[in-house]
TrEMBL record:
Compartments in which it is found: Cytoplasm
Family: Belongs to the glutamate 5-kinase family.
GO MF: ATP binding; glutamate 5-kinase activity; RNA binding
Protein's recorded name: Glutamate 5-kinase
CDD domains, sorted: AAK_G5K_ProB, PUA_G5K
Keywords, sorted A to Z: Amino-acid biosynthesis, ATP-binding, Cytoplasm, Kinase, Nucleotide-binding, Proline biosynthesis, Transferase
Binding residues for ATP: K17, S176, D177, T216, G217, G218, M219, V220, T221, K222
BP GO terms, sorted: L-proline biosynthetic process
InterPro entries: AceGlu_kinase-like_sf (IPR036393), Asp/Glu/Uridylate_kinase (IPR001048), G5K_ProB (IPR041739), Glu/AcGlu_kinase (IPR001057), Glu_5kinase (IPR011529), Glu_5kinase/COase_Synthase (IPR005715), Glutamate_5-kinase_CS (IPR019797), PUA (IPR002478)
Recorded catalytic activity of this chain's protein: L-glutamate + ATP = L-glutamyl 5-phosphate + ADP
Length: 381
């Protein structure tokens, strides 16, 4: 065990994510032996007194065989059908496998909408915490049967990171079909393994991308998931399923992503990573400076444009005049109201339109700055 990885070895609450490629046969069907081998590792950790939340892909893959399909379908309707058939088979297999150790599991199916809507977010948090309190091992998957755009989340990588901060985990382990993060395609000459990532600059110049045969995620989604988790103060290990036991023991396997030095509020983490901007507000340079550097509320006077359809309470992206996203916040007005308010002071608005207009477009407590790691990762892919 290395000193820097003791945080993983000593973690009390751990989120472990396994992708479809770690759970399936070469033909794309669920591999019972692989599932049992992974359950052996997770059960050992659980019986040692640690809490485990397991995020498992594989519902669509599990449904391929029963539907007579040889590859992941391209159309959404068939993907949903495969998930509907496969999810029951998958959870039944986990229930049986964990039962060998006297452990009970509970199924939790989530969509991006559950993570984006604040009330749903709290409900999911409460349910997961109660399952853990009752000694149940939660098995989380995306609800692919009803998901639409969410079905392309990225092989549950982003979902795992969101769950890690949802349950305030102490560590996140991402299991892939690749043993670590590399500077390029590890199947090609010249690709070097990256043992640790401390800051965004460590990702500069690497080439990310690619998707699995039965999954949807590539390395870019795993790096993005690691960014979300480490930003929440959760260290991350990225490795393959064969190295799961070593990763949980703090051994120097895979790539270790160092956690941030502080853990932001759950509200800000939710706003930054679990929501999607429903529209855009364009700001003049003075307003950008006030929001970004001076951490002020967004006032009507600094807004020069509004895009999209949204209502009061929706998350919206706050942008420079050129469209660069700098922040996201919960807006206090409908999109149709803002053009009349732009460029006006709140005092003038209160005098001319009524006291209910003497309020911010977005209050600073409902505003979170967005870093530029997304851009860095996407440029590398």
């Amino acid at each position: 065990m290395t000193g820097e990885r003791t945080a993983v070895a000593k973690a009390h609450r751990i989120v472990v994510k396994a992708g479809s490629s770690s759970l399936t046969t070469p033909t794309g069907t669920i591999d019972a032996d692989r599932i049992d081998a992974l359950v052996d590792v997770l059960a050992a950790r659980r019986t040692a007194g640690h809490e485990i939340v397991f995020v498992s892909s594989g519902a669509i893959a599990a449904g391929l065989g029963p539907l007579g399909l040889t590859a992941r379908p391209r159309d959404l309707a068939t993907q949903q059908a495969a998930a509907g058939v496969g999810q029951g088979l998958l959870i039944a297999r986990y229930t049986s496998s964990f039962a060998r150790y006297g452990l009970r599991v509970g199924q939790v199916l989530l969509t991006a909408d559950d993570m984006m809507r604040r009330a749903h977010h709290r409900n999911a948090q409460r349910a997961l915490n109660q399952l853990l309190a009752l000694g149940i091992l939660p098995i989380v998957n995306e609800n692919d049967t009803v998901a639409t755009d969410e079905i392309r989340f990225g092989d549950n990588d982003r979902l795992a990171a969101l769950v890690a901060h949802l349950v305030r985990a102490d560590a996140l382990v991402l299991l892939s079909d690749v043993d670590a993060l590399y500077t390029g395609d590890p199947r090609l000459p010249g690709a070097a393994r990256i043992t640790e990532v401390r800051e965004p600059a460590d990702l500069a110049g690497i080439r990310l991308g690619g998707s699995g045969r039965v999954g949807t995620g590539g390395m870019v989604t795993k790096v993005e998931a690691a960014r979300i988790a480490t930003g929440a103060g959760v260290p991350v290990v990225l490795t393959n399923a064969a190295s799961a036991a070593a990763a949980l023991a703090g051994e120097p396997v895979g790539t270790y992503f160092h956690a941030g030095t502080h853990r932001p509020s759950t509200r800000h983490l939710w706003l930054a990573h679990a929501t999607t901007g429903q529209g855009r507000l364009l700001l003049d340079p003075g307003a950008v400076d006030a929001v970004v550097r001076r951490r002020k509320s967004l006032l009507p006077a600094g807004i020069i444009g509004v895009e999209g359809e949204f209502v009061a309470g929706d998350p919206v992206d706050v942008c420079t005049a050129g469209g660069g996203v700098v922040a996201r916040g919960l807006v206090n007005y409908d999109a149709g109201e803002i053009p009349e308010l732009m460029g006006r002071s709140t005092r003038w608005l209160a005098r001319e339109l009524g006291p209910e207009y003497e309020r911010e477009i977005i209050h600073r407590d409902d505003l979170v700055l967005l870093d530029q790691v997304d851009t860095l990762v996407r440029r590398s892919s």
